[in-house]
């Protein structure tokens, strides 16, 4: 949900881009297997409008079918990551009955959180405020890099709303129940630097370095063996295994799968030859 946001500019991804519907989502596919998704409605602080939601649905579907994909980076145009749900739409919801609203909200949540269904790692480059559903989008990613002065907050109850977009699951999963309670019950906002200290983001850096930092991490991910990386993401999904025995059972199956790949042979050869490996995903 929206809150007071900064209008300071921040860097946008370079390279060729293709627009989603209405140009509200930019999709930049790079030769190294990294795709950058830029929420592109800076005049509205990248609010998650119907048009942007439709563009997101199309983009994620396309990425799911992209066999060359290695990593996805998500960021916002202008001074915000995203201000979350469209308050103008929310103001009109009183005319709808609860069952219809439930169906509409479920579709909204599932569309945006479909990023978690991608088999490759995802990284949020939080270049500015991430608010409400926008914060949840960042939490749904595997890694998060934030501007030190970015504001991260979930002001649902201040708007008379119960938290949505899996906030009551994502916040505890990422940073633990104490911080989830603090942010959801008091509406406390964290700066990027505070979020790093509390474990909500991986690193906080000056605003002008956020996208570069996220892309550097994406390049490291993209350079790793794709099969091993995707299986590792599965192992860590949903907070990881419930106990050590479950982890051992999974690893005793997943590790032999990677042992049967040509990429493992290439990785060992590259280490022996002291050169970068050339992984193909085979």
TrEMBL record:
The alphabetical list of record keywords is:
Lyase
The family classification in the record reads:
Belongs to the enoyl-CoA hydratase/isomerase family.
Q: Which taxonomic lineage does the organism of this UniProt entry have?
A: Bacteria, Bacillati, Actinomycetota, Actinomycetes, Streptosporangiales
Top-rank taxon: Bacteria
Tell me the protein's name: Enoyl-CoA hydratase/isomerase family protein
Instruction: Give the matching Gene3D superfamilies.
Output: 2-enoyl-CoA Hydratase, Chain A, domain 1 (3.90.226.10), Lyase 2-enoyl-coa Hydratase, Chain A, domain 2 (1.10.12.10)
Chain positions covered by the region annotation Disordered: 1-23
Compositionally biased region (Acidic residues) = 1-10
InterPro entries reported for this sequence: ClpP/crotonase-like_dom_sf, Enoyl-CoA_hyd/isom_CS, Enoyl-CoA_hydra/iso, Enoyl-CoA_hydra_C
Q: Where is the composition biased (Low complexity)?
A: 11-23
User: Per its UniProt record, what PANTHER family does this chain match?
Assistant: 3-HYDROXYBUTYRYL-COA DEHYDRATASE-LIKE PROTEIN, MITOCHONDRIAL, ENOYL-COA HYDRATASE-RELATED
Signal peptide span: none
């Amino acid at each position: 949900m929206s809150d007071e946001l900064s209008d300071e500019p921040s860097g946008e991804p370079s390279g060729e881009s293709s627009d989603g519907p209405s140009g509200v989502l930019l999709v930049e596919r790079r030769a190294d297997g990294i795709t950058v998704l830029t929420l592109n409605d800076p005049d509205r602080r990248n609010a998650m409008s119907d048009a942007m939601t439709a563009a997101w649905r199309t983009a994620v579907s396309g990425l799911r079918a992209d066999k060359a994909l290695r990593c996805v980076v998500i960021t916002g145009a202008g001074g915000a990551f995203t201000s979350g749900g469209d308050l103008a739409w929310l103001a009109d919801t009183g005319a709808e009955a609860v069952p219809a609203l439930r169906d509409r909200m479920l579709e909204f949540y599932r569309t945006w959180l479909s990023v978690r269904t991608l088999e490759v790692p995802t990284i949020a480059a939080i270049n500015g405020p991430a608010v409400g559903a926008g914060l949840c989008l960042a939490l749904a990613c595997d890694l998060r890099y934030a501007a030190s002065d970015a504001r991260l907050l979930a002001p649902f109850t201040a708007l008379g709303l119960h938290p949505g977009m899996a906030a009551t699951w994502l916040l505890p999963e990422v940073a633990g129940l104490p911080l989830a309670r603090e942010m959801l019950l008091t509406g406390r906002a964290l700066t990027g630097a505070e979020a790093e200290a509390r474990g909500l983001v991986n690193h906080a850096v000056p605003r002008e370095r956020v996208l570069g930092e996220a892309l550097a991490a994406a390049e490291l991910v993209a350079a790793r063996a794709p099969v091993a990386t995707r299986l590792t993401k599965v192992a860590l999904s949903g907070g990881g295994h419930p106990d050590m025995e479950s982890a051992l059972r999974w690893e005793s199956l997943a590790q032999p799968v990677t042992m049967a790949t040509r990429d493992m042979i290439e990785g060992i050869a590259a280490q022996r030859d002291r050169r970068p490996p050339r992984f193909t995903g085979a």
